[in-house]
Design goal:
single chain; alpha/beta; nine-stranded mixed sheet; four-stranded antiparallel sheet; 15 strands; binds adenosine-5'-diphosphate; binds magnesium ion; coiled coil; motor protein; cytoplasm; microtubule motor activity
Length: 366
């Protein structure tokens, strides 16, 4: 089982061009790769806080670079039968949806369409190389968790019960969402049609709720089935656009918001605890303690998890950014250090000193 926790700083948008940038990517050694995020101490701006990650991507990072560095390397494992889970975590407005979904233009496409494209390409190659003996099947589920209820995004909104879908424990101990649509998908065009339609559904359903999408977790599950004779190998890639991590209580204390906020805080807290436990190599992962981590069986199979912390460089996000940095770097067990200058700065642990990817050798082929 392996976990990577990486940060991505988004650029200033056109309308923010005159704003201050307070979040910076840095390296542990001059000329080294970016592994550190620096942000001023809000109580004393002469001082910086620094947070270390497996990797840090600055504002110039393209969608392609992020995918090539953090997701593409796991496609092979996915086809070997391991589950791959990619989370986008962060405050609303920091680029989670941009990172996962992205724009329609080819260069703007996010992790999800690129992942699907990679899956189809590799699947075709496997079938071809096996002389047609191995067939590869891809199916999709897409759902959201809102206030701890599960809603199927492949169903039109009018067919969704407001109670959400129930969970069911299977004989093998896994938890599944009962009645969740699973749709076969044959190529990238097929996927895009389904995905765009489902995202439109999500928006339509959300008009009654202000900014609903930032308060729900959207989970896309790609189920991969490889069949060779009577041998079947199954694995899942999950891509999750998490609810915004900001503290809603600070801006609005309406009752509905408080309920949402409590549900979001609980599930994000459990998620960070799971990631922390996995990175420590613990036997016990507290995945049963939230619906999201339970459905994902996070940490229950020898899979790969990548958590992308999205950051906006703006001063107006200062406190929320700090709190999201605290949560994710705790997930990676790296201490926050106050630093005043470059000399102290060198004491920040380097990437590799908290190796998280050591569990690969334990993976068993199916
Ligand atoms: P979130 O899903 O975290 O609320 P969004 O993905 O909607 O945030 O991003 C907020 C805004 O910033 C959007 O207009 C988005 O297009 C833009 N944005 C985010 N990340 C980038 C990036 N890396 N490059 C260019 N624009 C970005
Ligand atoms: Mg979003």
């Amino acid at each position: 089982m392996s976990v990577r926790v990486v940060a991505r700083i988004r650029p200033l948008l056109d309308k923010e061009a005159d704003k201050d940038t307070i979040v910076r990517a840095d390296s542990a050694e001059p000329g080294g790769p970016h592994t550190i995020v620096r942000i001023p101490n809000p109580r004393n701006e002469a001082e910086d806080f620094s947070f270390a990650f497996n990797s840090v991507y600055d504002q110039s990072t393209t969608q392609e670079t992020l995918f090539t560095s953090e997701v593409a390397p796991h496609l092979k494992s996915l086809f070997q039968g391991f589950d791959v889970t990619i989370f986008a975590y962060g405050v609303t407005g920091t680029g989670k949806t941009h990172t996962m979904r992205g724009g329609l233009k080819l260069a703007d496409r996010g992790v999800i369409p690129r992942l699907l494209s990679g899956v189809f390409r590799r699947g075709k190659k496997i079938t071809k190389d096996s002389g047609g003996k191995t067939t590869v099947h891809v199916s999709l589920s897409y759902y959201e968790i809102y206030n701890d209820k599960v809603f199927d995004l492949l169903e039109p909104p009018e067919n969704r019960s407001s109670l959400g879908l129930p969970l069911r424990a299977e004989a093998n101990g896994k938890t599944v969402v009962a009645g969740l649509t699973e749709r076969a998908c044959v190529d990238l065009k097929d996927f895009e049609k389904m995905y765009i339609e489902a995202n439109n559904n999500r928006v339509t359903a959300a008009t009654k709720l202000n900014a609903h999408s930032s308060r729900s977790h959207a989970i896309l599950r790609v189920k991969l089935t490889q069949v060779t004779g009577d041998m079947v190998r199954q694995s899942t890639a999950s891509a999750i656009d998490l609810a915004g991590s900001e503290d809603n209580r600070r801006t609005d204390n309406g009752k509905e918001r408080l309920v949402e906020s409590a549900a979001i805080n609980k599930s994000l807290f459990v998620l960070s605890q799971c990631i922390e436990a996995i990175s420590r190599g613990d036997k016990r992962i507290p995945y049963r303690e939230s619906k999201m981590t339970r459905i994902l069986s996070l940490g229950q199979n020898n899979g790969i998890t990548v958590m992308i912390l999205n950051l906006a460089p703006l001063r107006s996000y200062h406190l929320d950014t700090l709190s999201s940095l605290n949560v994710s770097s705790r997930a990676k067990r790296i201490e926050v250090r106050e630093i005043e200058n470059e000399v102290v700065f060198k004491q920040v642990p380097k990437q590799g000193s908290h190796s998280l990817a050591s569990g690969n050798a334990q993976r068993q082929p199916l």
